[in-house]
């Protein structure tokens, strides 16, 4: 298509290498990043900084954050949540990671013919409950129906608008040597909860998803004037993917202490059973914050006042003298391991 | 789910009557409106007026419009457009129908494993071309992949933000007796173009979709100070569904003149062949505007300066003395026909 002025956009997808979309293109690893980068570069405008979680816009005198996510999780219901709660929390959390106060959400449903109305009703009610908990309003929506066998029950896309009430630049570019890396709580529960239901695994202790809205602890940090340098929620690709991306973009070295990273024993056991590394498992209610070392203790004590981040702790530091762009992990047995992006995915359709 | 304060939302879906979602629930008729009303009432906040096309929000000193749409059209490419162009135009047009200047779009893709990368690349490029033409920027996005057989190539959800630069209330409530009903051009082409490809029908003259952005003519009307009372694009359910909804909400009678409604001969023939009424066929680049009779001529001459609405004309009037809430059509042969919502749909998955 051309507009008559010779404007004919091209999307630089890796057609030669990958002629078809693979499940791995949705999995949070290298292939997904390659795909998203090609699409984003087609849309990119010179004026807008490309951000991980959403766009920061200026409209009139306001600074707004704008973000969207699609949700295709299977099963639709799992311990600790469902696709509706996930769709609300996911978009609320993307806004929070932009340092914005989430305000308004849109929702679009793609329903498969034959879906039980009772299921739809539960999902819609769960979305409203999650919106209420997160302090946002769902203000507009759309519904489409596809033929039986052309969908999978319910797909949901949410978009969100938030307001940015500070002028702090937040993102990997703002990360500085000496920053402490704060983690808001234990990792790996969301992905393992989904996997356990899907595989019919029963553990002694039921593993529930960590799915939760994260705006409250983030806004508390910002309102207290903590010099937050970077925020990132730990969704597809888990803690490892989030930190590798930040290290690469910042061009700095992140050194982690494995012993400081909380993983519940039942999650650890499940990971061992499934042959999965919890560092790469998706979370839906966990984030990292990069703050100057001198503010780490104060930031921790603020995070610990919110239930969702009560177990926050320092898990590592940013250094200028280590290998630039790398994340290294000092293991419990004293060795050092380099964390990298996986090429594909461990767990398909976990969000 | 409850937040501990006893807040347990319930979604009042018609479970007894319809235990399962039908294709007709997506078709623009009575069933779709029933479904959407139940979902919207679950989400509804007291402060926000419920609007057809999107939400009007106040953030700081700004008045913004916010809207979303899902797109599941089959086939992905059709004469005059493709799912990508449709996704951009659909959201741009919803913002325009709120009387807003479209600014920013988000896009989320749900891709089926096995989709050709070349197809994806064409759709992405088409979206960027359409965004360029409509004067909006696609600023944020998301991509998910579902297993083969759990999707249908590409589904797209777009959301959009626009700014409302006037303080005119625009909507069915603002419609007044004596208003002229302006139609921006010929109807029925989008739905019939899709149907023709799907059914393998060949006509002497190829029927191309009317898919196009509508913000330019709408903004020209508003900038010229025309007292626009209501705007509505003619998507699912076509001209008939749009006008029936407006008549019902306004509680007024709309009288149409069939001879004034332009339908191209090839569309008329195709409709006769398919047994479809063009008044109910979806359009993706057509709208109606309600303006005071005294401003109708000026409004028409403004619309006619934009290529997309060059063929605009007056097709009817609002009256206070006819049957309230009804749309009647004076046919070419002089009889009068009452237009009503269809219960289901004529053409599934046309957007």
How would you describe what is shown here?
Two copies of one chain form a homodimer. Chain A is of the alpha+beta class and 351 residues long. Chain A has three domains: 1-44, no CATH class; 51-163, PurM-like, N-terminal domain (60s Ribosomal Protein L30, Chain: A); 172-339, PurM-like C-terminal domain (Phosphoribosyl-aminoimidazole Synthetase, Chain A, domain 2, Alpha-Beta Complex). Chain A is built from eight helices and 14 strands. Chain A has a seven-stranded mixed sheet with strand order 9-11-8-12-10-13-14, with helices on both faces. In chain A, strand 1 (55-59) and strand 2 (62-71) form a beta hairpin. The radius of gyration of chain A is 20 Å and the shape is globular. The mean pLDDT of chain A is 92. Chains A and B meet through helix 1, strand 1, strand 2, strand 5 and helix 3 of A and helix 1, strand 1, strand 2, strand 5 and helix 3 of B.
Q: What is the structure about, briefly put?
A:
The structure is a homodimer of 351-residue chains. Chain A is an alpha+beta fold. The first copy, chain A, has helices at residues 30-43, 83-97, 117-134, 189-199, 215-223, 238-250, 265-274, 296-303, and strands spanning 55-59, 62-71, 77-78, 81-82, 101-112, 137-146, 154-163, 179-183, 230-233, 253-257, 287-292, 313-319, 327-330, 336-339.
